[in-house]
């Protein structure tokens, strides 16, 4: 499921005032920036140079072209010279792709001994970008502003993050989520308005009875199951005792059928995320464990107990983080280690993605005790230590909110020999006392999308593209400040919706 074939268009603004020689320099410099940025091999997209725009007609045309180009996920706009901003009104009014305002200049240092007015007129981004910035603000256009010389590592990192957010937004526009069964009964936070979500984020949610899925699972051939077992041998640590036990081997074969059946169902319908529920498994052998874990590792989003919002978020974040070190998984705040410092042990009944594993996972069979009680094959591991984020998309009734908590994942202080599920141990920022209270005040769910590849800024950029509220819990969070922020946000988003 590669997303790295997408494009971001680099569009430079100028005008005819300066004459053909200056415009030749502007085009040459712009192409140089594009080649230089692409040459770093650190962007997740192909940056595409577009001819310099010098009139309202040219600006309008390139914006229309971007709207209809399926590979274009966004635009980077830069004013090399002075581009009178009234020329941009018609184009920006129609532009439906996200855009970044890059405030840079081609040369980093001034040529002190030779600088003249011709140089000043050619290299006046400081002037032109402020004019362009005004019209973006005057038109109330949401955009990312990145400032600094284009060769600086910190500028490249911001461009990388934004391009990944644009990939996530593009994924959101085309994503389809399959729900096998319904939500867990009586649970509030996994519910929500699917129509409102499609209007806001673009993704579709489709429901299917488990009998439809069971037909695909039952149709999987023995030869295909055997080939899957060979993959399991290569990918995981499996004890000889497990293979010698005919029952355990049968349970692993069962997961192979579930995996292949689900993947074929998803691929045939172009679904890149899915949910299921342990309370609604009619026709299936049990709650998929290894099967779900492997599908997530292949890039599919997942949400337990019918949680379609988190399933979509997991898929979107997997698209954002593709190619970066660190994985992404469905996650749940499960239990606490109250000590010094306080910690959270994250896990779920079965379904944690091995992309976050610190070592080669172990494949084992254990008894599943919730819902359908049966033996289920699953991968066991602990998450890689390091910075991570937990992201919770929630339906507030009159709007959506995306909640982010920055955490530090750590290695467990001891073995977990009797815990038959994969897990992640983390210390939330600023600490559990503030983070958990802030999460509860903000209405955060117990399910999250957990990632070490996606940054807070990427989620903020994505949320701004979607036009939804974000609440960040990080090192600087205080409860007093957060409650004030929530009150201010409530007023702002109510006013923004209008009467």
TrEMBL record:
L-arabinose isomerase N-terminal domain: residues covered: 7-173
Enzyme Commission number(s) of this protein: 5.3.1.4
Stored Pfam families: AraA_central, AraA_N, Arabinose_Iso_C
Free-text comment on the cofactor: Binds 1 Mn(2+) ion per subunit.
Keywords assigned: Arabinose catabolism, Carbohydrate metabolism, Isomerase, Manganese, Metal-binding
Origin superkingdom: Bacteria
A GO CC annotation given for this chain: cytosol
The keyword Isomerase is assigned to this record: yes
Record: residues binding Mn(2+): 305, 332, 348, 447
Pathway: Carbohydrate degradation; L-arabinose degradation via L-ribulose; D-xylulose 5-phosphate from L-arabinose (bacterial route): step 1/3
Domain L-arabinose isomerase C-terminal: start-end pairs: 327-469
GO molecular function: L-arabinose isomerase activity; manganese ion binding
Gene3D superfamilies: 3.40.50.10940
Keyword Plastid: no
Span of domain L-arabinose isomerase central: 176-323
UniProt-listed GO biological process terms: L-arabinose catabolic process to D-xylulose 5-phosphate
Cofactor: Mn(2+)
NCBIfam families assigned: PRK02929.1
Protein name: L-arabinose isomerase
Species of provenance: Salinimonas iocasae
